[in-house]
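ok so for the tutorial part 2 we go from a plain amino acid sequence to predicted structure tokens. step 1 is just haveing the sequence, like this:
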Amino acid sequence: MEKEKWEENLKRYDELVDMCPDFERKGKTMPYTSANGHMFSLLNKDGELGIRLSKEDGEKFMQEHATTRFKSYGSFMRGYVLIPEKLFEDRDLLTSTLNEGHKYVMSLEPK
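step 2 — the prediction. this is what the tokens look like for a chain of 111 residues:
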């Protein structure tokens, strides 16, 4: 991915995370969010956004938005869905989805 495009998606990701007061973005070269010892969102090296959801919520999201599982560094990440770039403009949906990811990892046993 072009550096400019990656930086544009990073800016969008940062804006999205800034809209959620319960957590903050971490990581310099691999931006992510985590809580309770579990990551729940990630911007990969290709500038793609993945959000971790429960199995049921993830399957529903993939069906409703014609997307697939999220891949980073050549491997599918368990529980993560790929956020289609066309949804980057739907801040309400993304904020809701990111908060749902946070809620999900808070329900897991702490690491």
